[in-house]
Amino acid sequence: MTTTLDISITKIKESRLSHYDVNNVAFGKCFTDHMFVAEYANGQWEKAYIQPYADVPLSYAMSALHYGQAIFEGMKAYKNEKGEVSLFRPLANQKRLNKSAVRMAMPEVPEELFMSGLSELLKLDAGWVPTSETGSLYIRPFLIATDEAIGVKISDTYKFIIICCPAGKYYSEPIKVLVETDFFRAVHGGVGFVKAAGNYGRSMYPTRLAQQKGYQQVIWTDSETHKYFEESGTMNVMFVINDTLLTPALSDTILDGVTRNSVLALARDWGMKVEERKVSIEEVMTAVEAGKLQEMFGCGTAATIAQIVGIGYNGKDYDLPPVVDRKFSTKVDEELRNIRKGRSADKFGWMLKVS
Ligand SMILES: Cc1ncc(COP(=O)(O)O)c(C=O)c1O
Known about the structure:
This protein has helices at about 65, 90-105, 110-125, 195-200, 205-210, 260-270, 280-290, 325-340; strands at about 5-10, 35-40, 45-50, 70, 75-80, 85-90, 135-145, 160-165, 175-180, 215-220, 230, 235-240, 245-250, 275, 295-300, 305-315, 315-320, 350-355. By secondary structure, it is of the alpha+beta class. It folds into two domains: about 5-165, Aminotransferase class 4, branched-chain amino acid transferase, N-terminal domain (D-amino Acid Aminotransferase, Chain A, domain 1); about 175-340, D-amino Acid Aminotransferase, subunit A, domain 2 (D-amino Acid Aminotransferase, Chain A, domain 2). A hairpin with a 2-residue loop joins strand 12 and strand 13 (about 245-250). The protein is globular, with a radius of gyration of 21 Å. The two termini are about 30 Å apart. Pyridoxal-5'-phosphate (PLP) binds next to strand 12 and helix 6.
């Protein structure tokens, strides 16, 4: 498979950057000047280019739209005080994209193609990376099946695309979640462990029902018994009980979050007791009722560390400890920001400078 493709670059005639305050834009609504595109056909990656961000002609018969061969990633770039732009753990996203690609019978994107497209794009659009404390450039790499054909079959052609948008906070406030025990997100043998677009489509209806009841998100439980926590929206979920950090163990129904992995690495480095295992609703609700649940939060690239201050279960609402009392998640949130903004030593080698 060809991995060294020349990337042809067509620059935008006039940047749109001056139309926006990148430190103050709604998440996911404003896109940078350029995008990266690579095209797959005839069993190989044939073409790679950067062009001005724009709508592009695609067929309504395109197989991604009908049969769901569509996968994506979410990652971020940060600007430090010297104005340098760095990516956080980009290879983890590249590897996860390929894990998704294999499961969805799509072609893998070679590391070199992924990384060179990404860094060329970021060099051009570095001015769009926010400088604010909680700001970053959200990067959306995605792979879609582009065969113009109705009929369920594995597509022969694909596009791998990267678009970017400046982003502030995903949740402006701590959130309330509903423990979902009717619907489920993923089953064993399914695609819960990959970032397939369909995973998100199927979550919309249960999430809407939860939002109508005043919750921001659902927390999914296992499909077989609905007794164990899985994850929430676009976040993995964590608890602190008895000074121990608890999180559901990875399985084929849970996404292997890059943020989850980073939080666990920091906790272990700080000598905190960490348990990755099945976490039952009963155990957590017993801790809540006994006043022993110290912290509950979600973690993900978009949401960063999202404090969960309320939980609904079995028709009852429970208040969780106030955010000011949450030592671990406050510290881990701060340390991740410090590493990303270049203020703390990058002892795990997570940051990759691109410009
Ligand atoms: C379902 C799901 N779980 C967890 C996460 C968190 O993963 P990460 O930390 O890699 O963003 C995400 C976001 O990508 C997600 O969509």
